[in-house]
Specification:
By secondary structure, this protein is mainly β. It contains 2 helices and 15 strands. The protein has a 6-stranded antiparallel β-sheet. The protein has a 5-stranded mixed β-sheet with strand order 8-7-9-10-13, with no helix packed on it. A 4-stranded mixed β-sheet has the order 2-1-4-3, covered by helices on one side.
């Protein structure tokens, strides 16, 4: 282990959940490695913190500047000792004909811990395909998962009505909605309300996605 004098002390706000966490980062660590270390440390405590480092950025709290992720520029070349930093989500560009959610929600893939943020509605679970319409509205692209090619390109659609989140099946590929109390409903032509802790089981791919809402939507 490196001596303390070979490390740089900094403080990191981890999303909006864990403010001003003290870190002793080794000299030479890159911002990407710092992001990976924060994910490893807090992913169990923060269920909507995903494992994909590319989904996050590190900013300076004093001036809002985003740290350069170039591997050739280590952390100590970009910030000084005692700096206050923030781990923040990389926001995706809003597609046309969608509505931004004031309080986004998340889907957590239960086997590996990948997290998908739903920033706008309507939105799809599926696989991206530039030849299809509404490709930019696929907010949950599962093609990179081991069984992801068993997911339909337009599998499940989310939409909002009167402040309530609904989901509907867009495929013949079956989906089971497992409620937080353990009860099950088959997703069909009739839209179902999505609630905190519900899990979507995509049967053919055996992918399970759990819904994680912030308090404002969880209580609706």
């Amino acid at each position: 282990m490196a001596a303390l004098d070979e490390r740089i002390e900094c403080f990191i706000d981890v999303l909006d959940s864990h403010p001003k966490q003290r870190a002793l980062a080794r000299n030479g660590i890159t911002p990407v490695e710092l992001i990976e270390a924060v994910i490893a440390e807090f992913s169990e405590e923060i269920p909507y913190l995903g494992k994909n480092a590319a989904s996050y950025k590190v900013c300076r709290r004093d001036n809002g500047r985003v740290l350069d992720l170039d591997v050739a520029i280590p952390l100590e070349k970009q910030v000084g000792a005692g700096s206050h930093l923030a781990l923040m989500e990389v926001e995706r560009k809003q597609p046309p004909k969608t509505k931004l959610l004031s309080t986004p929600f998340y889907l957590r893939e239960t086997k590996h811990g990948y997290v998908y943020k739903i920033q706008w509605l309507p939105a799809f679970i599926g696989r991206t395909d530039p030849s299809m319409s509404d490709n930019e509205v696929v907010a949950v692209d599962l093609h990179n998962l081991t069984t992801g090619m068993a997911v339909s390109r337009r599998h499940v659609r989310f939409f909002e009505r009167d402040g309530i989140i609904y989901l509907e099946l867009c495929s013949r590929n079956p989906v089971t909605l497992v409620r937080s109390d353990g009860s099950k409903e088959e997703l069909g032509e009739r839209p179902l309300v999505l609630k905190q802790g519900d899990a979507l089981k995509l049967e053919r791919s055996r992918i399970s996605l759990q819904a994680l809402f912030q308090p404002a939507l969880a209580d609706s």
